[in-house]
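README: folding subset

This subset contains proteins for which both the sequence and a predicted structure token string are available. Records are stored as plain text. Below is the entry for Inositol 2-dehydrogenase (456 residues), shown exactly as it appears on disk.
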Amino acid sequence: MSAHRKTTRRQILQGMAVVGAASVLPSFSNRALGLESANDRPVFATIGLRNQGWTITQKSFKFADFAALADVDANVLGDNVEKVKKAQGKAPDAYKDYREILDRKDIDAVMIATPDHWHTKIAVEAMYAGKDVYCEKPLTLTIDEGKLIEKVVKETGKVFQVGTMQRTESAQRFLQAVALVNHGRIGTVKKVTCGINGMIASPVIPVAPVPEELDWDFWLGPAPKVPYRALPELREGYGGGVPLYSNAHYSFRNWHEYSGGKLTDWGAHHVDIACWALGASDTGPSKVTPVEYTLPVEYKDGHPTVDDQYNAATKFRIRVDMPNDVEMIITSEGDNGILFEGTDGRFFVNRGKIVGRPVEDLEKNPLPDGAVEEVYGGPVSENHTANFIDAMRSRKQPISDVWTHNRMLEICHLSNIAMRLGRELNWDADKREVVGDDQANSFLSRPIRKGFEINM
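--- output ---
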């Protein structure tokens, strides 16, 4: 394996390269945690480390050892190398280029937390390199990318966990919600509303010097080549230390070139639970209608006409026609969470509460024993990594598999396409294409910048 991108912390921060051989991690003092012996603990690597990348890494120390990290920002990479070293007693190897990680035979699985436009390329190449994959949500930037990932999972037999943690770590309330629906506690479901918040528009964001520590061309990767843009004001708290307004860093979610706004951010959580409860995780909608929406810039033929401001929808109300005549509303208004309404009642659930008469009635009329475990398919895992590793051992797909995730995410992608084109879309859930609308179908995929094609 070539290792010309492997670096120490000092060399990371200086932007230098060093040649060295990657080593297999020895047993650590914390190997006894979680599993019975050192040999039971898989070896992981994380690709993409800002914010959620560190979150999923630190949640996994109990179950796995980290041999390598990769990020295109030298400061982020260096900081995380130090944090992992402190946590597990040995520094992981550091790379700017994730392909160096895929070359290594000692790594069992990769955790991917890059911006969304990188997910599919890395995930597909990782599976072909023999790695199991944990990838943050939303899994894809386009619907066709989801079809490709499904094909490769089936072809390679690799285990693939999508990071929709409401199925595990925030699960108790959501599993109870699914069980309430499954056991008829609101009668026949008629409507489900997913509140996912809106976004703010941005001011004009000027072209700015690329930070010295950031490889901007590699950050863009498969996306079009554009200048780096940023305003000097820094974001506080989550995502701190980066510009509040930019076309990179935490703000990537606000640009269709790299993500899908709130529809694929919070939507990937709440629409997932809604589909799970409706039993629609392996089907899809018949129609997606943008009832009300605000795009922050002018669009022409589905594409923004300016490139210096956020372009994902800031406000929206989308109506989705689901199987069995269920109406789904996805809205930026109201409480963040999911409201289920049926012929016999309604209730609301989010990460902090589950409320409503059907929930109150549980005190006198509880769900049957094992109802929640029945929804989950067995004992509920303590976190997403534990479920992933259980699946790696059994060679069965985990609780958040690519098929159910993609079916749900198609609703979110179609909602964005409908707003960009300003019209309702009729969806063929079997063919997975828009009915009679070639222009809309052109948005099911995207051009890949030369030099960043998927290596298959």
